[in-house]
Structures are given as structure tokens and as C-alpha cells.
Design brief:
The chain is mostly helical and 482 residues long. The protein has three domains: 198 residues, Growth Hormone, Chain: A; 51 residues; 212 residues, MFS general substrate transporter like domains (Growth Hormone, Chain: A, Up-down Bundle).
């Protein structure tokens, strides 16, 4: 393993690692702005459109821990490069997609590549920067890039969709991916020292991903197939069987993907439950609010991007250091509870947004509250997950909470989007106009999301305070909303 590289090259290597992860973050936010255009071009129904997001979330969450383990066993740089290749090739397929099926499959492959890149990038930073002071600076830079990526993404998504078309929100990844691959070979040290002893829990990754895949499919298609239909009940039963199989595998294998014993730790368990509820609310809000702005309020894609910008900028500012200062001053419990309750208030405001809403009255206040909530809450929820474990397990704990965040987002988006579609269908059957019916459906989903975030905020009060809060500056947030 080569860690003794020149100081200049270390920082250049950090830039390349940040650029690779930035590509993953950008892709998350630019896609949301382009969703209405994708919907109309490829003929997605509103519930089927969920798969453009969830195909990515499910594979990303399902393979995040496995990606980190692959890097540990077979070399972090090697698997970083493999992840970049997979993500870039899948982005090309997304950009050329002319059917729903091709786009969804390509998005699933993007999720696998993104999971591997995200999982091993932090490990490479730890390898390259061995001194504590330099490592802290490097982590601060990495956190800044990831936090700021959301703001860039919403603007870039609007610009590309407006000036070109939605295909370019994916095609823009091609030159970035090629450049990152070449520069990684040149600047990032190879840490591979031959295969290490250890086993991969492939069965665990596959069973948990398939379980959630079947559950999401049953929920998304439940309105059309019928909630008491053989298809819906059968898929939910299969999902439950696969989840039971996953839990059994994790209990039996010598090196589990997700050691279940860790969940005996109160803070880790509370942080994961809160992550699932919060992600369910946030991912559904991002998805449905983009549709509300573009379909109900008739915003252009660029206007949608600008509407999201205030919240993203606020979130980025807090993620950079303000959240860490709050944690240092007040501990984990208070800032996390306040952040989640602010997010709940923002969602509640969206839950009353009318069909003829205006930006300054009906959009901006909710965006600001959600930006504040997410910016304040991301840091302490990670710290809460790592609070009860030793340094040697901190990476695993943060990986588990990130996985819970992505999986909760996938399930929450499926459930809330289905609830919105059911409400819309009921009102159109009664003769309501489509904008009124769509808006009423979105309002139901936003209010349920607000309830989820509020419950997560209440759960935060159950956290056990740490005797001494760690310095949290530069701690990267969980993956951005897809």
C-alpha cells in the first residue's frame, strides 16, 4: 500500500475522489428535477415513475455495505474504479433509454456502482491522509463537496432539461466518469496487497434487496392490482419470507453484512428507526414536490431547480460546520429532535399548498424549514449511530444507518406515492379536475410525511447522551435525496 505520496499529490487525489462522489450526488438531485419530463416522454404513470428513483435507491442501499467489504478484501482503489465504470456505463444506458424498462434497469445498475464508489471513497481518504490534522481537513473538504452537490444538482438538472432534454442529466456523467477513471489511475495510490482472509455476505445483500424490491413492487402496483389481490398479497408474503431469510443468514454467517447484535445498542437502534422514518418523508417530498411544482404550478424545469435552491443552500451551510457546532454545544439529542421537527413543519406547510399556490407564500417557507431541518439533523443522526460503538466499528455503524436511510426512502416513497395516487384516483372518479385531484393527492402524502418526521423527532429524545460529544466537523451526511 502506498501512503507516502507527495503532499501535492495527496490533495489532487482528494479532488479526484470528491469528483467521483460528486457525480453520484449530482445524479441524485438532477434526476428529480427531470422527473416530469421523463414521465411525459416515456409514458410513465405517476406510480410507475417511482421506479426511476426506487430502482436506484434499492440497489444502492442493498449493496452499500457489501461494496465497503469488497474494498476491504480486494483493494479500495480497484473497487472504486469498478464502481466508476459501472456507474458511467449505466449512465450512458440511462441517457440513451427509449423505454421504461431500459431506464429502470440502467438506474438499478447505477445504484450498484454508486454504492461501491460511496463505500470505498472514505476508506481511500483514510488511507491517503494518515496524519490527524490533514485527515480532518480532507474530511471537511469531502463533506463540503457532498453537501454542496445537491445545490449544484438542482440547477444543473433544470438547465439541462430546459436547454436540451432529460437524457442529458445522465449523459453529463460520461465525460466526468471517464476523467475520474483516468485521473484515479494516475493520482490515487493502489492499496491492494493481495487477497485478505474474509468472506463476503453476498446472500445477505441479495435477500434484503430482493425482499425490498418485491415489497415496493407490491405497494406501487397495489392500487391497480387491488390490495386484496393474489398478486399483492403474494408479493408481500414473498418479501416477508426473504426478509426472514436475510435475518437468519445474518445470525448464522461468520461475517455478516449487518451484525444484528449491534441493534442491542439503544442509540444505534433509535438512529436507524429515525433514519427510516425521516428518509420516508424526505424522499417522498423531493419526488412529489417536483411534480407539484411542474405539473400543478406549471413551473419550467429551470424554475423547479431554482425553487429547490434555497433549501439546498441552507442544508449545505449547516452541513459544513454549523450543525457540528450545535452538536458540540448542545449534544446529539436536541439538535436532532429540532432538525426533524423543523422538517416535519416544512412538510406540513407543503401539505396545505393550494392548486394556485405562489412561490413566496406556499413554496419558499416549506423549502427553508426543510433545508434547516436536514442541515441540522444529518450530522447528529450519524453521530448517534456511532455513539455506542468503538472506533473499529464506527464505519460499520455509519454504513448501517446510511443503508437504513436509503431503504427507508425507497419504501416510504412507494407508500406515500401510492397514497397520493389513490387519493387522486378517488377524486377524478368524483369529477374533480386533474390539477385539483393531483394536488389533493400530494397534500395527503406531504401530511403523512410530516407525521413520519415528527415521530422520528420524538424518537430522537430517547437517545442516550454521550459523556463527551466528539468534534463533528466535516462528517459527511447520509446520501442525498434521490
Amino acid at each position: 500500500m502506498t501512503t507516502d505520496i507527495q503532499s501535492k499529490n495527496r490533495w489532487l487525489a482528494l479532488i479526484i475522489l470528491c469528483l467521483g462522489d460528486l457525480m453520484i450526488v449530482l445524479d441524485s438531485t438532477v434526476v428529480n428535477v427531470a422527473l416530469p419530463s421523463i414521465r411525459s416522454d416515456l409514458g410513465f404513470s405517476e406510480t410507475a415513475l417511482v421506479w426511476v428513483v426506487n430502482a436506484y435507491l434499492l440497489t444502492y442501499g442493498g449493496f452499500l455495505l457489501l461494496g465497503g467489504r469488497l474494498g476491504d478484501l480486494y483493494g479500495h482503489r480497484k473497487w472504486y474504479l469498478i464502481g466508476i465504470i459501472a456507474f458511467t456505463v449505466a449512465s450512458l444506458a440511462c441517457g440513451l433509454a427509449n423505454s421504461q424498462g431500459l431506464l429502470i434497469v440502467a438506474r438499478a445498475i447505477q445504484g450498484v456502482g454508486g454504492a461501491v464508489v460511496s463505500a470505498v471513497a472514505l476508506s481511500l481518504i483514510m488511507i491517503i491522509f494518515t496524519e490527524a490534522e490533514e485527515r480532518a481537513k480532507a474530511m471537511g473538504v469531502f463533506g463540503f463537496v457532498i453537501a454542496g452537490g445537491g445545490s449544484v444538482g438542482v440547477l444543473l438538472g433544470g438547465l439541462l432539461t430546459d436547454l436540451l432534454d432529460w437524457h442529458w442529466v445522465f449523459l453529463i456523467n460520461i465525460p466526468i466518469g471517464v476523467a475520474v477513471y483516468g485521473l484515479t489511475l494516475m493520482l490515487v495510490p493502489d492499496d491492494h496487497q493481495g487477497e485478505k482472509t474474509g468472506r463476503l455476505d453476498v446472500a445477505g445483500a441479495i435477500t434484503v434487496t430482493l425482499s425490498l424490491l418485491f415489497a415496493v413492487y407490491a405497494i406501487v402496483d397495489g392500487n391497480e392490482a387491488g390490495w386484496d389481490s393474489l398478486q399483492t398479497i403474494g408479493l408481500l408474503a414473498l418479501a416477508a419470507i426473504l426478509m426472514a431469510a436475510f435475518l437468519l443468514i445474518e445470525l448464522k454467517v461468520s461475517e455478516p453484512l449487518m451484525p444484528l447484535g449491534l441493534f442491542r445498542l439503544r442509540n444505534l437502534s433509535v438512529a436507524n428507526i429515525a433514519s427510516v422514518l425521516w428518509a420516508a418523508a424526505m424522499f417522498a417530498w423531493f419526488f412529489l414536490s417536483a411534480l407539484y411544482l411542474q405539473i400543478v404550478l406549471n413551473y419550467t424545469p429551470m424554475e423547479v431547480g431554482l425553487a429547490f435552491l434555497p433549501g439546498n443552500l441552507i442544508m449545505g451551510a449547516f452541513s459544513l460546520g454549523l450543525s457540528a457546532k450545535l452538536v458540540t454545544r448542545f449534544g446529539i439529542r436536541g439538535p436532532l429532535a429540532v432538525g426533524l421537527l423543523l422538517a416535519a413543519a416544512g412538510l406540513a406547510l407543503f401539505g396545505r399548498a393550494p392548486v394556485d399556490g405562489t412561490f413566496w407564500i406556499d413554496v419558499m417557507p416549506g423549502m427553508v424549514l426543510l433545508g434547516l431541518g436536514a442541515g441540522i439533523g444529518f450530522n447528529p443522526i450519524l453521530l448517534a449511530a456511532m455513539n455506542d460503538v468503538g472506533p473499529e466499528e464506527s464505519g460499520l455503524a455509519s454504513g448501517i444507518v446510511n443503508t437504513s436511510f436509503m431503504m427507508g426512502g425507497a419504501l416510504g416513497l412507494a407508500i406515500l406515492a401510492s397514497m397520493a395516487a389513490a387519493r387522486t384516483s378517488d377524486l377524478t372518479a368524483l369529477g374533480a379536475s386533474m390539477p385539483v385531484a393531483l394536488n389533493a393527492g400530494y397534500q395527503v402524502a406531504f401530511l403523512v410525511g410530516a407525521a413520519c418526521a415528527a415521530v422520528a423527532g420524538a424518537l430522537a429524545l430517547l437517545l442516550r447522551p454521550a459523556p463527551q460529544q466528539p468534534e463533528a466537523a466535516g462528517t459527511p451526511a447520509p446520501a442525498e435525496a434521490e
